[in-house]
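stuck on this fold:
=====
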Amino acid sequence: MDSSRSAQRAVTQFLLAEGEQASQIYRRMKEEYGDQCLARCTICRWCQRYEAGRVNIKDSPRPGQAHVVINSATISAVDELIRQNHRITTLEIAVELSISKGIVHHTIHEKLGYGKVCAQWVPKHLSENQKTARWELDPSATQEFLH
């Protein structure tokens, strides 16, 4: 028998509709579900809700911070903002995209692999091609690197 919470709520709703009292419902469900049975106070609370007119057996949505999954659209949007302005801050990105600073931070450091150098976002590890291209653009950097 299905011992899920929603199944037990449905049984509670059915037995209450047949005229059973909350304590009797608990006893019958305890016999049937054993250790998987909802607590007595939970069954009583659901009985009160059904008597007050509730018909849904599912939990109502709870207030609080919404769960946000970092997806490819978020990653590409953060990357695009960084490419447009290397001096952009995590707070500015968070405000622009309406996401938390923590998600921005995780995306920048873990997903994109950027680090902040001299107040600019740059890749943490440059490939050999990127290093060569950088030296070709700024010959003084090559001399500084060698010294």
